[in-house]
Specification:
Elements (H helix, E strand, L loop, with lengths): L1 E3 L8 E4 L1 H10 L5 E5 L2 E5 L2 E2 L4 E5 L3 E5 L26 E6 L2 E6 L3 E3 L19 E6 L2 E6 L2 E3 L6 E4 L2 E6 L2 E4 L8 E4 L2 E6 L2 E4 L4 E5 L5 E7 L2 E4 L2 E9 L3 E13 L15 E9 L4 E13 L1 E9 L16 E15 L4 E4 L6 E13 L35 E21 L6 E19 L6
């Protein structure tokens, strides 16, 4: 069954069409069907999908958010008892909760219009502003061939969902400080492919903000542009991450470059891939294969920590674990000046890591007086590549890889090239057992005396 929103009284341009669009959705909730947004600009606030419903945006159609917070009534899936989570935004444009067989399809656009322009002042800050898409505890979710623009906070969040397929998405999310491009939180059986995401904050983030971990996920053929992290796991890691593969992706600076707080101007992307497990949980069997990284501070960052952020009422979580990680076929251009790092903390080690076919072109340029003499642990800090150095404004003693509190790590076919002389060592290891290196080549510029 197919219905047009105009069949239920929707009119384009300045009219607020929330009720008409919701009526169109509800009209097919018993049988299932397609609700069509025809060409034009259709303003609306929050609408809720129902099981069996596809929201289809035709060519030339734009679902446009309003600038009135009253059009986005606050509803917390945590307070409603639907999920347990540390971070679930209270507002959304297109939402779904405990639905099955739902879809949002293009080729039209969902434009949040900035999500009320910072008008909402409450606990949660910018994250209290509307997301363009938010699906909670749903099964069989498809979002394909849609253009997503200018959310008030995260562009799209999939929380505790199973069977998610995201393909052909064109995402632009800038304006607020928490403008992530894509957040997968505690989901299972996920396929993400052929997406182009440009965001102020993290481009693609895997989170585990509650007991439901991220499991069985495939990501391929995507481009991630960011002022923060390209591909990130964490920071929240309560339920863990397992069996995740990322292949044939590109990470590069946003087309709207705006460096994040705490980092210098001119090189806005923080990492190509960041694997962070600091709030308990187990991260294992994560494999990244085929990554082109352009102009990032550090291509690879892996951190096992014990921040143990407690925003649920559970007892203190057990210490986390990172094991069985592989990163292969990475080509990084103009990386630095920060070093890649793989670190645990005293008594808790990152285990079984394979790095293979890694080619990093590093900007270099660090002098002896700019090297941090003693690297602090800071295992309870927010995980970030500058977590060891920001108090001193100096750099780690390596320019390629800094390895600490690691067991069973292999580096095979590694090329570390300098564009400018650098006083640091290419690789530093501290409290590392069973380090295997094969065909590791470093150099390319004369070191500082």
């Amino acid at each position: 069954m197919q219905v047009l929103i105009t069949d239920h009284g929707a009119t384009p341009d300045q009219t607020i069409n929330t009720a008409a669009i919701q009526a169109a959705i509800d009209s097919v909730r018993s049988t299932g069907g397609r609700v069509v947004i025809p060409p034009g600009r259709w303003r609306c606030g929050t609408v809720w999908l129902r099981s069996g419903v596809e929201l289809h945006l035709a060519m030339g159609a734009t679902l446009l958010g309003t600038n009135d917070p009253a059009d986005y009534p606050a509803w917390s899936p945590v307070e409603a008892g639907v999920v347990r989570s540390r971070r679930a935004g209270p507002r959304r444009m297109v939402g779904a909760s405990q639905c099955e067989h739902i879809a949002v399809t293009g080729p039209g656009t969902i434009d949040g219009d900035g999500g009320c322009g910072g008008q909402i002042r409450e606990s949660g800050g910018n994250e209290a502003h509307p997301q363009n898409l938010q699906f909670i505890d749903c099964r069989d979710v498809q979002v394909r061939d849609v253009t997503l623009r200018s959310a008030g906070s995260w562009m799209q969040q999939y929380l505790a969902c199973e069977g998610v397929r995201l393909t052909g998405l064109d995402v632009w999310n800038h304006g607020n400080k928490t403008n992530d491009g894509l957040d997968i939180d505690g989901c299972r059986e996920v396929l993400i492919s052929d997406c182009d995401i440009d965001s102020h904050d993290d481009a693609m983030v895997f989170k585990s903000t509650g007991p439901m971990g991220c499991r069985n996920i495939l990501v391929s053929n995507c481009r991630f542009r960011s002022n923060c992290h390209g591909i990130k796991f964490g920071t929240e890691s309560v339920g863990g991450f397992e069996n995740i593969r990322v292949s044939n992706c590109i990470v590069s600076p946003s087309r709207r470059a705006s460096p994040m707080a705490g980092y210098p101007e001119g090189r806005p992307v923080i990492t190509g891939c960041a694997l962070e497990c600091v709030d308990g949980g187990v991260m294992r069997h994560v494999h990244i294969d085929g990554l082109l990284v352009e102009r990032v501070f550090a291509p690879i960052f892996i951190k096992l920590g014990n921040r143990l952020d407690r925003r649920l009422d559970e007892a203190d979580p057990p210490e986390g674990m990172i094991e069985d990680i592989s990163i292969r076929n990475v080509h990084a251009r103009q990386a630095g000046p920060y070093s890649c790092s793989i670190t645990g903390y005293p008594g808790r080690h990152v285990r079984r890591v394979q790095l293979e076919n890694i080619d990093i072109e590093h900007v270099g340029g660090v002098r002896t007086e700019d090297i941090l003499e003693k690297v602090p642990e800071h295992s309870d800090r927010y995980p970030e590549i500058n977590m060891f150095t920001r108090d001193s404004d100096k750099q780690l003693p390596s320019y390629g890889f800094y390895l600490r509190h690691v067991r069973e790590i292999s580096l095979r076919n590694i090329s570390l090239r300098l564009l400018e002389p650098d006083a640091r060592e290419p690789i530093i290891s501290d409290d590392v057992e069973d380090l295997r290196m094969e065909n590791v080549i470093a150099g390319g510029a004369e070191s500082w005396a």
